[in-house]
Amino acid sequence: METAMGPWLMVATLLSGANVLLLAVLTVIWIRNYRTFGSEMTAGLAVFGVAMLLENIVAIYFFFSSGMLYADSPGVQQSVATLRAFQTVALAFLTYVTAK
Predict the structure, then answer these.
(1) pLDDT, tens digit, for every residue of 22-36?
(2) Residue ranges making up the domain that contains 29
(3) Which parts of the chain span the membrane according to its record (predicted)?
């Protein structure tokens, strides 16, 4: 039985979408830097970016396909949205300092 997406899951979905965009920018920068410098650190950052990118894409998929995953609990949905918001703030800051 599929349920309609609640407002907190919609917020979480939008934040995950923003995270995907930020992570795409970061990953492109890190891959470019790896090709330029060949540093293991930039390779690690690129792999981290890809992993986080995939995690956010999978999260969006589950938000749309598995409303029951969060048991229709507004408290759980709000917690998921809050965690996504923290991630968005962290990625926005990281993107800012990386692109600088």
Answers:
(1) 999 999 999 999 999
(2) 20-99
(3) 6-31, 43-64, 76-97
